[in-house]
Amino acid sequence: AGDALPFLEKAVALDPADLDARRALGAARLAGGEASAARADLDAVLLARPKDAAALRLLSAAWLAESQPAEARRAAERGLAVAPRDPALLLAGARAALADGDRAVARALAERALKAGARGEDAAEARRLAATQTAKRR
Hints:
Elements: H1 5-14, H2 19-31, H3 35-48, H4 53-65, H5 69-82, H6 87-99, H7 103-115, H8 120-137
């Protein structure tokens, strides 16, 4: 992500209305540990496209990176209102709910992510979240 950052910054500087480039820049900044800068880019995307599910998923992750689980949860919930069967958004919602202390919702969202077709690392994380929740509730 760090290698792409200068190119994405230049692309956005050349065409600030390129929302896909701005969302990619937000993702790269988030991956590089710049959650606040990522949020600014993602907010710009969401002003123009309030139902951009990918931007909402990234915004949820950015809020989590800043230890703001309630905001992360709100972003994930906005995304799920648009794309209720998106496995990545369901997992984002599960992460945010768990960080916010809502184990039951985290478990339910993790299970929904698996049913919605989460794959690879996302599926493994969803299974861990669902199993962890079950174990913690005993």
